[in-house]
Amino acid sequence: MPIIKINNRDVHIQELNKEATETVLLIHGMFSNLSVYYFNIAPILAEHFHVVMYDLKSHGMSECTLNGYDLNSMTDDLYALMETLNLNTVHLAGYSFGGLIALKMALRFPEKLKKLAIIEAPDPSDEKARGIIDDYSREFLEHYVENFTDTTKVKMGKRQMERNHRMYEYLFYQTSIKNDMVAEKDFFSDPEITTINKETLLLYGSDSNCLGTGEQLSKMIKSSELMPVPGDHNIPIQEPVLVGNMINTFFMN
Prior knowledge:
- The chain is of the alpha/beta class.
- The chain has helices at about 35-40, 40-45, 70-85, 95-110, 125-130, 140-145, 150-155, 160-175, 175-185, 210-220, 235-240, 240-250, and strands at about 5, 10-15, 25, 50-55, 90-95, 115-120, 200-205, 225-230.
- Helix 3 (about 70-85) crosses helix 4.
- The model is unreliable at about 150-155 (pLDDT under 50).
């Protein structure tokens, strides 16, 4: 369980194939942790790349914190992580909220990135995407784990479920995350998005309610390609091998 200090906070990381010459850095989404990649997608990428995964603040085994969930703060954390691990440049992939962090990273620190893979990044102006926080409950978490997080439900007993429930209650009811997400609602309206010049792969579920966002991004980012994947918002869990191979091929070519 490697824990490192980033911006004076404990961050849980995992690495595969450290000897590889190029690095892929993976960012998970909300209601998640690095295990969304660790069991299926990361091993595919590790056949050719050094793979780095980390738990976002107040997720997984990383330290909880009351504030700093805006995209500037999250990318400050990511930049500091890269500096600590001596990573000059990486291929970057982000899922859901992690996709927003990846896009912000491409805007703020383009010199640190090679290629970009965005998986199911939602539109922050979509009230349904933000409203998930207001709908959170113990029952919601149990339903979510039972139906969507196949990589963790095999290992998650009552004790782990209670731990996750306490963690998410803290995240949603005690931190600044609600206000920070609302503050990002105009992110996709910012014309700066059109200045992203990294080769970008957009992976969206063919039945996802975020597919329209993928189509919007494909028009805004010139060097991008939208590739639908069978499934909905949870394609990394529903189709991990397909998603892993698509990202691997994109980063290799």
